[in-house]
Amino acid sequence: MLRPLTATDLPAATRLLGIASPYYRAGDVAAEKLFGAAPNSDGPSTIGVDVDGELAGIASIDGNRIRVLAVAPTYRERGIGAQLLAWCEHAARTHGHPRIWALGQAGNYLAPGIDAQDQATIGWLRRRHWRESSDIRTNLIVAVHDNPLVTPARAHDLSVEASTRGYEIRRARPDETRLLAAIGAEFGGAWPFEVERALQWRDGELTGAVHVAVRGDDYCAFAAHNGNNSGLGWFGPAGTWPAHRGQRLGEAVLLACLLDVARQQATCEIAWIGPEPFYQKSCGIIGRRMFVPMKREFTAEES
Ligand SMILES: CC(C)(COP(=O)(O)OP(=O)(O)OC[C@H]1O[C@@H](n2cnc3c(N)ncnc32)[C@H](O)[C@@H]1OP(=O)(O)O)[C@@H](O)C(=O)NCCC(=O)NCCS
In degrees rounded to 5, what are phi and psi of residue 295? Predict the structure, then answer.
């Protein structure tokens, strides 16, 4: 029986997502994925399936993006997953979308796509007329402990180097809304949303997970972590304004973020990356995760 889930289902949903898949830490970000906001959102719809009074399956969709879909291991191979998938497809069609995607909702994504190692889920979707898209996405894994490139001394040196050129490297304040407008004007997309979330992040004494390079009144570079998948220490987004590139400002704000992440994690996941050589040089790479965007195009009869 499909039914809408509410906040009172969160403990059971968190348990289910915690054991659903070894490829994602969905249980650690359950509230964010099931009920959290996203930019340009239809608003998430979250449903569950109960069997014998127990939550057996769960799905959350926002617009044309499935945020999570999982069936508890003991309830698999009974058609529950197919029922949840059909409901998600119907919801996307009802909102007028011509296609539906798995994961990868900009601003609120469990992962940028299906983990390429998860061939079981990829095959399951393929048998249901879903197809891979060619733009494979990558997350980089960076060591933030025992890494000679990620040390307070190196962050300090980069900050001093920036100051000799008239820049200040500092943590952004939670109320720094002018920063969001500046990021929106230059970079757009979901980035202001993610940065706003990161600004609200708290870790003990630290408030805000965004570092900036400024000169006078101008923002010149920024980097954020914990804006998406809050609590997992994922890094991103980050950007340097074009006029200020090539001066190691991006490296300075990256290092500041990685040192924050090191307070809670031994590694940092640089999510949905752009330029890999920049990260190789700035902080080293110890691993990579590849993600496959998958979608289903609705036929004319279905739409
Ligand atoms: C992928 C997933 C959702 C499938 O859930 P499920 O409930 O087992 O899905 P279904 O039962 O609909 O389909 C599974 C298989 O069982 C078969 N099946 C369906 N009803 C059946 C029944 N009554 N008896 C036997 N087999 C049945 C289906 O035909 C299907 O086989 P096929 O793919 O070869 O056609 C589940 O494996 C899962 O939760 N995986 C992790 C998902 C994940 O990573 N999510 C992101 C993180 S939360």
Answer: -140, 160
Decide which of 96, 131, 166 is a domain's last residue.
131
**Residue 23 above 80 pLDDT?**
yes
From CA 176, how far away is CA 58, in angstroms rounded? Answer: 37
136 lies in some domain: no
Whole-structure pTM value: 0.94
168 within domain boundaries: yes
Contact 163, 296 (CB under 8 A): no
Q: List pocket residues of ligand 1, CB cut-off 6 Å.
A: 17, 20-21, 23-24, 26, 68-71, 76-82, 121, 124, 127
Per-residue pLDDT at 146:
98
pLDDT band at 253 (very low <50, low <70, confident <90, very high): very high
Burial of 33 (0-12, 13-18, 19+ CB in 10 A): buried
Residue-range definition of the domain harbouring residue 261: 148-283
The CATH number that applies at residue 159 is 3.40.630.30
Q: Are residues 260 and 209 in the same domain?
A: yes
- Ligand 1 atom closest to the Cα of residue 26 is 48
Mean pLDDT, the chain, as a whole number? 97
158 and 277 housed in the same domain: yes
Domain count within the chain:
2
* Cβ pair 198, 257 in contact under 8 A: no
Residue of 77, 80, 87, 121 with the most ligand 1 atoms within 8 Å of its CB, for mutation? 77
- pLDDT of 130 above 80: yes
**What is the tally of helices (H) and strands (E) in the chain?**
9, 17
